[in-house]
Amino acid sequence: MGFARTRSVALVGVEGVVVEVQADLEPGVATFTLVGLPDKSLTESRDRVRAAIVNAGAEWPQRKLTVGLSPAAVPKSGSGFDLAVACAVLGAAERIDPRSLADLMMLGELGLDGRVRPVRGVLPAVLAAADAGHRQIVVAEETVPEASLVPDVSVLGVRSLRQLIALLNDEPPPEEPPDGTLPDDVPPHEQRPEHRPPTASFTAHGWSAPGLTRRTERTLDLADVAGQTTARRALEVAAAGRHHIFFKGPPGAGKTMLAERLPGLLPPLTSQEALEVTAVHSVAGALPPGQPLVQRPPYCAPHHSATMASLIGGGTGLPRPGAVSMAHHGVLFLDEAAECSARVLDAMRQPLESGHVVVARASGMMRMPARFLLVLAANPCPCGRHGIRGGGCECRPASIRRYRARLSGPLMDRVDLRVQVKPLSRSELAGQHGQPENTATVAERVLAARERAAARYADTPWSANSDVPGHELRTRWPAEAGALSRAEDDMEQGLLTARGMDRVLRVAWTVADLAGHDRPTPEDVDWALELRTGVKRSPSAFRAPLTVPRSRP
């Protein structure tokens, strides 16, 4: 009789649960039983593990084999348990010293040839292991940079099960070519130059993420947007205070261009935010090659035909992250929002308030972070020409009402800024009003406003104006005397709800931070109120266009 144990991690959303993998060998008919609430993909690991062990040069035990995954009440899915199951079986068969496995955490899929392949969710899995006190992690070589983001953890990257067996037995590890290259019997002069020897011991990798960048892409500059002074200012307010924004206007006015340039105005992610975003993208399998840490705010723009599962999260079996989670600490842009399903749009109301989404399925419940900046864009009517002088709109009034009703009142009540994007004039398109500010200039003001807000809320759980409850703003950080008089009048007339009143005050604080005011002035509140209701108020200095005069020849 032989027994061995090691450990792995089961992921539920972005939260990991440490799982003890136990293998027991008894005399009897050679069978392989896997218990502990595995799903279909995990049940199939029996065949993968058997083939991988044999092809790694080890002997498969011809006895009754039982592998248990504990705690048994936690659903387990995916192929990330393969490496742990294989090592536990080899430990029970005394091919590996069972004592060398007891303190290891293993994450990796096995190919039939014994290769160790990367899996999703390595970062949240290693975080869960570190929180549980485990410090030695074995992963596929490709995921070593991602696993090494967790401090005080020793990471071993291996290419094959054969290498791991040798290392655990204190034997020289065999050389393995990178996955997808020529086999071992290819002569050295024909092998690829990127072959390199594997790691020979457990070491804490001092890997630095800032040196890695995404693939080269053209930076989208705000200076490319002609005209649209009000919309540009509203976009700046949205970035500075993390306020949701809605662009309404005819096709070709620049709504999508404005939304695509919003991520460039946002400050880089903090260390904690970067880990949260990377964990979500790792679970979704969306980390780009060579980019184990996401450092810039993500930008997600699903098609307007997106389903509930793709936007909020879900799928067969355990739910997967949706677009609202993929845009965590970034921007979620819904173009042609009025074409989206009203049911799908209304499903965003809960994560917009709470900053997370909870998806319940028969196989389990998932809680995912979803604190994103929402940008909506829509045409005024199905044809897009309603309200334009000489536009020739032929939509019936009932059709226009149904079209606009898809953006429900409760959803729009959670959107702080509502901007009418008007068609460009010929002079604006030709740039005769001066050169617009570029992204770098506006981003500096946004960063300064964010720093003012962060200093104000230093001893609180909030960091941005959009996070602060209205009661706290009214009592601890009130506006100037009489500054809210117009907003209070609008509330009395039913133009503002109580939630809308709080959001006007939050936007007013953001406007004040951008203008360098200690407290919101009446002009700041009027500008915030105009962005909320669309009703023109008294002139505000903040609305004055800041442009760079064109140089004369």
UniProtKB/TrEMBL annotation:
The Basic and acidic residues compositionally biased stretches are 186-197
Q: One Pfam family from the UniProt entry?
A: Mg_chelatase
List the CDD domains: AAA (cd00009)
Q: Which species is listed as the source?
A: Streptomyces marispadix
Task: Identify the taxonomic lineage of the organism of origin.
Answer: Bacteria, Bacillati, Actinomycetota, Actinomycetes, Kitasatosporales
Q: Which residue ranges does the record assign to the AAA+ ATPase domain?
A: 241-425
The protein's name in its UniProt record: YifB family Mg chelatase-like AAA ATPase
| Chain spans, region Disordered | 169-208
